């Protein structure tokens, strides 16, 4: 899947090692790793959220991604007035300026006959194979258990993957009230109001309901030991649950939230919150032992002016942190350089597993004949340094400010075009392509058999009780 020290003879859209003429570009990758481009399963570009809009759009966010070795991302479509189709049309418009390949997940904020019909259209005609349910954000995006159950059943019938933002939104609301009563208005109140136990509860509930419906479940941004342990338990019992940590949860702890400078502290506000020291290491361990399967970012950025909407009240700080540009570097440095995962596992957690789960493997997530030529060259001996001055995102802060590490993406090739080389971006708005993702990924294989055995296990005692009365 990757080659140590090969000299690539050609860069062709349809990656081949064929004999080529003298005028092709030659890139010397001696001593470096040639790997599939990264795929970020979790981003929010140009999203209207908490009274404002994320400052990275489909051009700036993707340019940043390419500079960091990510060649595809999957963004969340938010319905407009609960309409999936209206939401999708809005995002199709926003994505016209794309300079990188992308796909969509669809959020579900209501359930009725229209939503049910539109879910089918979205899967069968629009190339989306995943639906996300927010168990938090009471009063806006949050869904209750009844809606979640309806949604899970519909996902199952369509072969679509159900995803959850797992925090108990009612309890978060209560936690926020408590903070205000205590006179805690600063960014630290954000973390204190929504502790790990609320993430653990919602994760456990979603897992159990998905098990009850017998459909696969994908838990986004696993930020705590509490949530991770629920996923571990379910997977051990054979349930089809996928856990996605995000870079901020893997490498940061909550100390920044207590910084006395509001601009510094507020940049760390995201949901679920960045946890106390210890959760980060535990999540790294879970990524290395297979309890968690792929790394996203939840890239959702606001500049310091937008973050300052919450200067008097943490509840008004727009939630979100950066990561789309930093993910490949930080995962390499934290997980590979430190010896926690192998290079093969690095390719899996940053690219291949995402392609498999969203059913676009081996077109994406691989370097083989017929795959799109999304390729990076990473130099394990070169260093990176992260700061807001030099990053490519439009935001004026960076939660990884000042971090240095080993392993730098020196070249990014997207669909056969060199878009990042010598620390220079060559990106063209409109060149990114929408990637359709078909339903019924590998997690659905044999699901019907499991249904049959579940039903027969119910049938036996039912019949017996009838015959005895
Ligand atoms: N969490 C964030 O921090 N931002 C976007 C949405 C979310 O769930
Ligand atoms: Zn979320
Ligand atoms: Zn952490
Ligand atoms: Zn998100």
TrEMBL record:
Residues 33-419 form the Amidohydrolase-related domain. This is dihydropyrimidinase. Its cofactor is Zn(2+). It comes from Salix koriyanagi. Carbamylation allows a single lysine to coordinate two divalent metal cations. It comes from the Eukaryota. GO terms for cellular component: cytosol. GO terms for molecular function: dihydropyrimidinase activity; metal ion binding. Belongs to the metallo-dependent hydrolases superfamily. Hydantoinase/dihydropyrimidinase family.
